[in-house]
Amino acid sequence: MVDDGPGTGAPIAADRPDDSVRAGACATYFRRLPHPVPPADLVPDLLADPVTRAGAVRHCRLDTATAHQLAEDPNDEVREELAEHPDLPPALRDKLAQDPNLRVALRVFARQDTPEPIRAAIHVQIVSDVPALDWLADPQELDDDELDRQITGEIARAELRTLRLPWVTADPEPYVDSPYVCFRASAAMSDHLPPPLVAQLLDDEESSVRTTMALHARDRIDPDTAERIERTYRPDKMIRWRPADDFSLPADVLRRLATDPDPRMRQLAPRDPDLPVELARRLAADPDHMVRRTIAPHPRLPAEDLTRLLSDPSESVAATAAANPSLPTTVMHQLLALAGL
């Protein structure tokens, strides 16, 4: 039993007999960021125990025999950790590149020392070899192995999209033209790219690259560029943030967007605190409920239009309108009475 770092007094339960306790100890101690180094005399025992092995791989001295043994481990997490080990022999690196678990192969893809042909082959395998999982299909139609394979493929593709590589960011210029989106996005995280390369990445075909570059070149984002990045923003997952949250658009642009064909862009118009009343009324009658919801709390929306939104077919629009402090007092009292307050 050892203490969980200096000053904490919390013991590591790596020597306890219960599997869940030992696994939990490694999960909280060995895998958190930043990763503390366990006592050297404890690592062999952790590595020998199947329950704690995955958490100990990154801390072990990787001799040839140990590396080969770990490469054959049936636990996918063990092979994932091995694939990231800085002392992994090239022959085993190339072997793990062909691992049946795509998440293991992805770790090899992300290594700086991976030869380009191997990296390209892994990329092709991840993005195309495994069919996309049909989440609406009956899971009983697939056997366990196939279902696991498809789920792993989905996870690997998601991790590939969000992968960011510090070693690429540290030396970004060779990767600005990379065929891999994650490499270009990693290059775009640099704050030291020359202007021509910044402009190139701001015009990249992938939204994530454009947005990342914009966030790291704020002083070079004019209103036209900010609007273009916002208009073409395509997030990898459902998040509430959008580029306009960081790159405010001028009032004249916001007013023009009030009549934009794209409802997503019309949602930005209420960010103008001095939005003309006629535009506010137009947005309150917009066919898109998200547009109506964004205008519902606006202080320049006339009381007549605001009151009308209280009976909007969309509950979220009606609720937002009800919270607007500009509601007439009589209407507020009516709402309180209806609520029994």
Structure characterization notes:
This protein has helices at 19-29, 43-48, 53-56, 64-71, 76-84, 90-96, 102-109, 116-129, 144-162, 166-170, 181-188, 195-202, 207-215, 223-231, 251-257, 263-266, 277-284, 289-295, 303-309, 315-322, 329-338; strands at residues 2-3, 11-12. It is mostly helical and 341 residues long. The chain has a two-stranded antiparallel ribbon with strand order 1-2. A hairpin with a 7-residue loop joins strand 1 and strand 2 (11-12). Helix 11 packs parallel to helix 13. The model is unreliable at 1-14 and 28-34 (pLDDT under 50).
How is the secondary structure organized here?
Blueprint: E1 2-3, E2 11-12, H1 19-29, H2 43-48, H3 53-56, H4 64-71, H5 76-84, H6 90-96, H7 102-109, H8 116-129, H9 144-162, H10 166-170, H11 181-188, H12 195-202, H13 207-215, H14 223-231, H15 251-257, H16 263-266, H17 277-284, H18 289-295, H19 303-309, H20 315-322, H21 329-338
Antiparallel strand pairs: 1-2
Helix pairs in contact: 5-7, 7-8, 11-13, 18-20
Question: Which terms summarize this structure?
Answer:
two-stranded antiparallel sheet; 2 strands; elongated
Biggest sheet overview: 2 strands, antiparallel
Alpha-beta content class = mainly alpha
The overall pLDDT, averaged over residues, is 87
Helix count, DSSP H or I runs of 4 or more residues = 21
As a percent range, the share of strand residues is under 5%
The run of helices and strands is EEHHHHHHHHHHHHHHHHHHHHH
The residue fraction in helices comes out at 40-55%
Placed side by side, the strands forming the largest sheet appear as 1-2
Rg calculated over all Cα atoms: 27 Å
Shape: elongated
How many beta-strand elements? 2
**Unreliable runs:** 1-14, 28-34
CA-CA gap between termini: 59 Å
